[in-house]
């Protein structure tokens, strides 16, 4: 079942869209907290986003840009602000389609089906891990925090993935080495230390100096 996220501050419109899409076997969710849209996006992991331009706090262009920093999920604008400038802006900010309000729900559904068909016939869904505002993209091994993005090496990515998936639990050095090299053969213990040190330097670039903590004689933890 494909998941559709609706970012629309008119609750009656949002509920109408949600109910209609549900009849077509979509799992639809509309946003109610317009300050924390990215957190909702990460938790829900939608396959497609419907977004209005005029929203509380920040407009749809802003949130489209924020989503584009972490995902290639298709985004369709739904708005009555349908002059040429807004349509051009929507596409330039990363939108994939635009439908003018008021619209026929069947036309909207046809556009949703078309976007999903074009996107997921060829591209798999974007997978993310999020912890305290730190976002690890599992598809392209990038890390994002406070609008900054860094590229991780294969080993750095695998270490961080394991630690973030086990946030709150100490992960032993032996477990990390097994995860990295998938071998019971001897690996120089210093090799892991070097990888951890390099990863911490990259995290420091994002202002995350203490993101990974050492538990002496045991391993590492992300709290």
From TrEMBL:
Residues 126-223 form the OmpR/PhoB-type domain. GO terms for molecular function: phosphorelay response regulator activity; transcription cis-regulatory region binding. Transmembrane segments: none annotated. Residues 3-116 form the Response regulatory domain. GO terms for biological process: regulation of DNA-templated transcription. InterPro entries: CheY-like_superfamily, OmpR/PhoB-type_DNA-bd, Sig_transdc_resp-reg_C-effctor, Sig_transdc_resp-reg_receiver, WalR-like, WH-like_DNA-bd_sf. Residues 126-223 bind DNA. The modification 4-aspartylphosphate is found at residue 52. It comes from the Bacteria. PANTHER family: REGULATOR OF RPOS (PTHR48111), STAGE 0 SPORULATION PROTEIN A HOMOLOG (PTHR48111:SF43). This is Two component transcriptional regulator, winged helix family.
């Amino acid at each position: 079942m494909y998941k559709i996220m609706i970012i629309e501050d008119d609750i009656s419109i949002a509920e109408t869209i949600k109910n209609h899409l549900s009849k077509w076997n979509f799992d639809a969710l509309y946003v109610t907290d317009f300050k924390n849209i990215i957190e909702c996006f990460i938790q829900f992991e939608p396959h497609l986003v419907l977004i209005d331009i005029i929203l509380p706090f920040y407009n749809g262009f802003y949130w489209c840009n924020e989503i584009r920093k972490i995902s290639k999920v298709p985004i369709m604008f739904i708005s009555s602000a349908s002059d040429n400038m807004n349509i051009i802006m929507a596409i330039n900010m990363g939108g994939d389609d635009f439908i003018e309000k008021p619209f026929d729900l069947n036309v909207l559904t046809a556009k949703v089906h078309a976007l999903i068909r074009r996107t997921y016939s060829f591209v798999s869904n974007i997978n993310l891990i999020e912890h305290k505002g730190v976002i690890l993209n599992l598809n392209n091994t990038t890390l994002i925090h406070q609008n900054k993005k860094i590229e991780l090496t294969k080993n750095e990515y695998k270490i961080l993935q394991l630690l973030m998936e086990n946030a709150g639990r100490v992960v032993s050095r032996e477990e990390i080495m097994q995860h990295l090299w998938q071998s019971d053969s001897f690996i120089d213990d210093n090799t892991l230390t070097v990888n951890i040190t390099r990863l911490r330097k990259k995290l420091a670039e994002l202002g995350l100096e203490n993101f990974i903590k050492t538990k002496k004689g045991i391993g590492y933890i992300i709290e």
